[in-house]
Request: fold
Amino acid sequence: MSTDNLELLDKIQYPEDLRQLPVEQLPELCAELRQDIVKELSVNPGHLASSLGVVELTVAMHYTLNTPYDRIVWDVGHQAYGHKILTGRKDQFYTNRKLGGIRPFPSPKESEYDTFTCGHASNSISVALGMAVAAHKNNEPDRHVVAVIGDGAMSGGLAFEGLNNVSSSPNDLLIILNDNDMSIDRAVGGMEKYLLNLDTNATYNRLRDRASKWLHSKGYLNDDRRKGLIRLNNAIKSALAHQQNIFEGMNIRYFGPFDGNDVVELVRILNQLKDMRGPKLLHLHTVKGKGYKPAEEAATIWHAPGKFDPDTGERLTGDTSQQPLRYQDVFGRTLVELAKQNPKIVGVTPAMPTGCSLDIMMHEMPDRAFDVGIAEGHAVTFSAGMAKDGLLPFCNIYSAFAQRAYDNIVHDAAILNLPLVLCFDRAGLVGEDGATHHGVLDIAALRPVPNLTLCSPMDECELRRMMYTAQLPDKGTVVIRYPRGRGVRRDDWQCALEEIPVGKGRCIREGDDVAVLSYGPIGNDVEKAIEQLKAEGCTTSVAHYDMRFCKPLDEELLQNIAAKFKRIITIEDAQRTGGFGSAVLEWMSDNDKPVKVVRMGIPDRFIEHGTVPELHHIAGIDVEAIKAEITKG
Ligand SMILES: Cc1ncc(C[n+]2csc(CCOP(=O)(O)OP(=O)(O)O)c2C)c(N)n1
Ligand SMILES: CC(=O)[C@@H](O)[C@H](O)COP(=O)(O)O
Ligand SMILES: [Mg+2]
Reply:
């Protein structure tokens, strides 16, 4: 891939510059923009394939709309790199996702062109509807509001709630459905099949397109066109009585599907649609990874491929064969092992089979593993239903996305204490995906919920033991949290599957002066800190306990610790407020223990993006911070 000649892109800093170009030059600009994204991401990794797929749409929207006065609301925002480059951030794009650099997803904190918080899927229709209604109420009929939502994000319940509400208040919202048949993995579900069917109904599409062209030629699309539209809609509907369009059925006018990778055609369509009054949906068909062959051919891998050689398409992952497994793979492999022994076990993921490694089970036991789409709440309640009727679901959700499923956990799982295992992957600070993706609220959110058992493994073996324990009889609803990335063991991760007594911690090392109580893999950093202090000649005698369970706490162990130490330090990779340390502090206070508890955890603010070590440092939970805290006493 040639990466030099970006003549048109070089002239553009903001959409005003883009709007100076004649429409015939837009295909060339798209080619340059695509080239720039590929070149930048090859050395500074991020979300590649989705951004490549919407290059034409991005250019066409900024060309036809008056951004930033007009509102573009991106869904997830992982596809918005072209948008960033065209809206004043071209020169900073090399800092994308880096500490102090531009944010991983659009954010109004960063640019006036970024209209809302992005990161979690399926909110765009609700947000944009709110803005469209506000424009109406604020008497700003000229403000165009556009939601851009992918077919994957359209599978989320929030998107359906938004659609359901669209026609309830007067508004001129335009929803652009970017349909590429892909989520991160293949898009799934009834809506996906429905969209595919819409794609293939040629007669209907031809008529819709002709109708819109005819209306435009008559000037109906601009002013008083409602009557004409209704008459024409009805004529089309009766001609195609068998064809019911779900969007039209909800009073959202439907247009498409059109080729979303044809920029000239997109400009024509958007110019026609943008001034049309009332809510409408434009269905575009795009190719995920468009224009970069390796990404077109393997969109899941190229969703976020890491570093790569832009010319050959070789991914530069390095040799990982000597490294410990990722926690997600320990989960995926152990689940299959357990499922072979226990026929009741099933696996559930809301749209992250590759991300959480449930794909291992999907390949080996396809009828026992379910990808339910981007639907975290449903994933939990669906699992609860299966648990109620005799199955034993392992439902794996990224901790940050599980925030979407809070009431489902409380109402549908915990109240009946159903036998269900919630595995929270990506728990803790996740790194470059930043504030929206850090899985740091789960402990504080779930600790007050009765019946739940909350635990976190210090290493891969412990994860296996916790998974084994959770599927034994009468364990109720168990939540196991573990982080993004690799474990700490090499060849010995596959320890025997043994029960851990629920609510029992363990002593990692004895000591006399101060006790550190850790929860989860951060206990390995505690060990490093203690070893380093010893090597540096520190004489403080430090005990270390891996508490394993945040709920129930190991009260016997806490009694012993309180009897021996005047000062203890707790540490967790999660929000400090209300977390594991708070649980220990409450216990000490409730039991009148005269012990000073120092809680190490993430302070009460949102942590942005950077590498995990950088963020642990900023949050004050890295090895250096642990050493400093130990030696303070
Ligand atoms: C609530 C939530 N769940 C899961 C994710 C992870 N996720 C990010 S992008 C994505 C796929 C989105 O598919 P689609 O909307 O079709 O966009 P595409 O990548 O195909 O352009 C998923 C599952 C998320 N960001 N938010
Ligand atoms: C945009 C999004 O939400 C996902 O693509 C997320 O970035 C995946 O994170 P992992 O890389 O940790 O699977
Ligand atoms: Mg998609």
Summary: The chain has 27 helices and 17 strands. The mean pLDDT is 94. The first strand starts at residue 71 and ends at 74. Residues 150-152, 180, 182-183, 187 surround magnesium ion (ligand 3) (CB under 6 Å).
